[in-house]
Design brief:
Rossmann fold; flat; 3-stranded mixed β-sheet
């Protein structure tokens, strides 16, 4: 089992294990709202992982979100690989 966590946010339930939920962020990025959502899933007994497809960038305006989304679309193969890696990581944790 690999312990190499992809770039993202991991929320574990109190028991430390549980069914896995892969959470993909909206065009805003991996913001505090999405992290809080993952935390609520963890409180409900799930291992929640949200990969950070924007690598630390978060938008707070519609134009900013559009720019991040367009950059992701232009590099969709990397994003697909990152989502696949996140799913594998989550599968190992759950």
């Amino acid at each position: 089992m690999s312990n190499n966590q992809p770039d993202g946010y991991l929320a574990l339930p109190p028991a430390g294990t549980g069914p896995g939920v892969l959470v993909l962020h909206a065009w805003w990025g991996l913001n505090d709202t999405l992290k809080a959502f993952c935390a609520r899933l963890a409180e409900a007994g799930f291992v929640a992982f949200a990969p950070d497809l924007y690598h630390g960038k978060v938008a707070d305006t519609i134009p900013g979100a559009e720019a991040l989304g367009q950059a992701l679309d232009a590099n969709h193969l990397q994003a697909e690989a990152e989502i696949a890696a996140a799913a594998l990581f989550l599968n190992e944790r759950a």
